[in-house]
Amino acid sequence: RTIGDRIGEAKASGNLGNTLKILGQFDEAVVCCQRHLDISQEQGDKVGEARALYNIGNVYHAKGKHLSWNTAQDPGHLPQEVKETLQKASEYYERNLSLVKELGDRAAQGRAYGNLGNTQYLLGNFSEAIAFHKERLAIAKEFGDKAAERRAYSNLGNAHIFLGRFDISAEYYKKTLQLSRQLKDQAVEAQACYSLGNTYTLLQDYERAIEYHLKHLVIAQELGDR
């Protein structure tokens, strides 16, 4: 501020916002991120503007998740305050998405699609969530980003469960399992086995369900995860 560096001030405000978000001070975080947004727009800094929109989305997303921790309800069955917070997150991600499309930033589009999928899932809009996660998946494949691809498969599996499409969920979870083994991530592998066990229970294929739950158990024991 002293040297009149507006872009520097914007970035510093954004960093403050992100730090306050991590500290759980969501309302103060929004103020700082909004300042980042205002200055970026005033300076015609499109990249800064996109980043600020994404960060504000993240703050509302984190706040929504934080508020819903106290309510152990299924996606879609949320208190009004949580719903409104997640809707705000979604609106900022949408604005970010249209701007990064304009800028031709595919990696940023991937992040926006993933977060839009997650917020729509929490809001109980499962078909919308699926559409966004499919976009996320396509971009992850484009970049050869195996970890993002794995997350997308997992999220697609979760959303199809709520639409009662258990067989489709099972296929997505199998892809999750395959990738978690490729990535040598045992905790995620265990989670995928657990999801498959539950899905096969829903499909009333109990033999297979047992098989996957046993695999989950073995990894949990290996990891010493009580």
Protein architecture, described:
The chain has 226 residues and is mostly helical. It folds into 2 domains: 1-144, Serine Threonine Protein Phosphatase 5, Tetratricopeptide repeat; 146-225, Serine Threonine Protein Phosphatase 5, Tetratricopeptide repeat (Alpha Horseshoe). The protein contains 10 helices and no strands. It has helices at residues 6-22, 26-42, 46-68, 80-103, 106-122, 126-143, 146-162, 166-182, 186-202, 206-222. Helix 1 (6-22) runs antiparallel to helix 2, helix 4 (80-103) runs antiparallel to helix 5 (106-122) and helix 5 runs antiparallel to helix 6. 44% of the residues are buried.
What distinguishing features does this structure have?
single chain, 226 residues, mainly alpha, Serine Threonine Protein Phosphatase 5, Tetratricopeptide repeat, 2 domains, 81% helix, elongated, G-protein alpha-subunit binding
Write the topology of this structure.
Elements: H1 6-22, H2 26-42, H3 46-68, H4 80-103, H5 106-122, H6 126-143, H7 146-162, H8 166-182, H9 186-202, H10 206-222
